[in-house]
């Protein structure tokens, strides 16, 4: 029997409807809508595509989206100078720098320049430290979206065995921490894991964010597993996830597609974080 394809687009749309109401209320209280500043250095195709999605979502909800495009040859100092300017602007509640950056610019140095109260994707050391300690902070958008999607689907996390495939600072590590905070028992796998199949067969929920197309095949998934595919891979010009979707669909109880799955939640969580930054973290 085929599993249920999680309609992440609908879940995200429902959340955006709620955000519209909150943005209007924000305008009544503060006399303006929340504002986000996005910095794009160069013209990486995936970043350009992501920015367009952000702009569309922000416009739909009523958040002011300010785009700052810099040439690829911009220096690290020029990028940080722009961030410092945006840090001081009252009409900017959140700052996001699109990755990847050109090789001559350090993502860590750029992240350190963002004020923690405007760090809407949890890149700063201050916020990642709070995330690790389980303290309140602005959460990273994709991991937050994954956990929210699971919960909105009505899937219980408390006591469940979760296998996270991938240990990046952007998705793998933070989503493991968020799932742990929800009461799940979390196992993190990666490229050095000796027997990945044995690990993935021993879980109730499988989250893959490895960035390797068709890494997760049907023989690696037990019947009834919830499969969340957060992989982003370009194969022959098409966006693919980490999971062999059609084959795994026959074994999973629930599964997210790529595209149309986790990605639909990421931009919505970004907008939610902007609103949260304005209401709860504005200084």
Stretches where pLDDT falls below 50 for ≥5 residues? Answer: none
Main sheet characteristics: 6 strands, parallel
Radius of gyration: 19 Å
How do the helices and strands follow one another from N- to C-terminus? EHEHEHEHHHEHEHEEEEHEH
Q: Which percent bin holds the helix content?
A: 40-55%
Give the name of the CATH superfamily of the largest domain: NAD(P)-binding Rossmann-like Domain
Number of domains: 2
Q: Roughly what fraction of the amino acids lie in strands? A: 15-25%
Q: What order do the strands of the largest sheet run in, or round the barrel if closed?
A: 1-11-8-7-5-6
Level-2 CATH architecture of the largest domain: 3-Layer(aba) Sandwich
Question: Structural class of the secondary elements?
Answer: alpha/beta
Total strands: 11
| Mean pLDDT over the full residue set | 95
In whole angstroms, the N-to-C terminal distance is 53 Å
Using the alpha-carbon principal axes, give the shape: globular
> What is the count of helical runs?
10
CATH level-3 fold name of the largest domain: Rossmann fold
The CATH class designation of the largest domain is Alpha Beta
